Every structure is written in structure tokens, then in C-alpha cells.
Amino acid sequence: MFDRFGFQRFAADDRAIEGLPIRLVIALVVGVATMSVMLNMLSGVQGLAVSELDVKPDPDVVTPGEQELDLLVVDADGDPVEGATVVVKDGTADIDGVKTGKSGANGTATVTVSPDVRANQESGTLVVDVKPPAGSQFVDRRENTAVLVVRE
Q: Which residue range or ranges hold the DUF7382 domain (predicted)?
């Protein structure tokens, strides 16, 4: 039965075993070259390193009526970030439209708002978002500190 299926002939053939290691080496080289090209397309490994931005409003508790908010934009290390756009908009408290400001050299953006608490509420919040400077290694994925609006 062993000879009937020709196993004897395959057992004596060494050619497939000789070609196997070189094929593995070629596949490895092609795989590494492909990975290198893909990483270069993503602007290198350093392009993947980003820092989270946070906004620290001052004051963070206000009353209804017109007032200025100083919004300090900082990176993960607490250093001020210049050129970020800060956006203040309705949360559970109301303001007229959306207010924006750009952070200066000290990382602070000043925005004038006139918040109001909704009917039957004693307090509400204003949402603060930040858009990182163009071309920077910053992101804003987490929620920032909200501004609390308290009725007097």
C-alpha cells in the first residue's frame, strides 16, 4: 500500500525542504520592507506620539449675566499652549450662540459670555472645548472642565 500511492517517491525527494528556508527569508524581508513603507506613510513613529490638552477656566463658577472667562490651555505636563482655539457653548445653561477665543503666548484665551440658567433650574453648565493648534502634536479627546453657572 505504501508504494501504491507513491509515498516512497515523495519521501526520497529533498528539493522542497531545501527551498523552504530561502522562501521564509524572502517573506521576512518583504514583510519588513512593507512595514517600513507603512510607518513612513504615517509620518514616522513620532507622528503617533500626542499630548492631551486641557482647559482650566477662571472663574469656574459664575452667575448669570455678562462676564469674561479666562481659559488657560495646558498640555499634559501643565505647560501653557499657544495658538489653541477655545470654544464655549451651551451645556445645561444657555449662552447666545458659540463663543471662541485663541490662546496667546501665556496659553490664555479670554471669552466674553452672558450665561443664563434655564427655567426651573438653580444651576447649569457651559461646555468648554479646545481645538489644538494646526500642525501640532496635541489632541483633545477627554472632556474639559465645565463652567458652572449658579443662580443667585
A: 48-112
Give the residue among 103, 102, 104, 109 at the shortest CA–CA distance from 70. 109
C-alpha cell at 149: 453657572
Q: How confident is the model over 112-148, as pLDDT tens digits?
A: 888 888 888 888 888 888 888 887 787 777 888 888 8
| Cα(71)–Cα(81) distance, integer angstroms | 11
Cα–Cα distance for residue pair 111/131, rounded to 1 Å: 15
Residue 85 and residue 110 in contact, taking contact as beta carbons nearer than 8 Å = no
Closest by Cα among 91, 112, 110, 102 to 133: 102
Cell of 121: 433650574
DSSP state of 49: -
Residue 118, amino acid: R
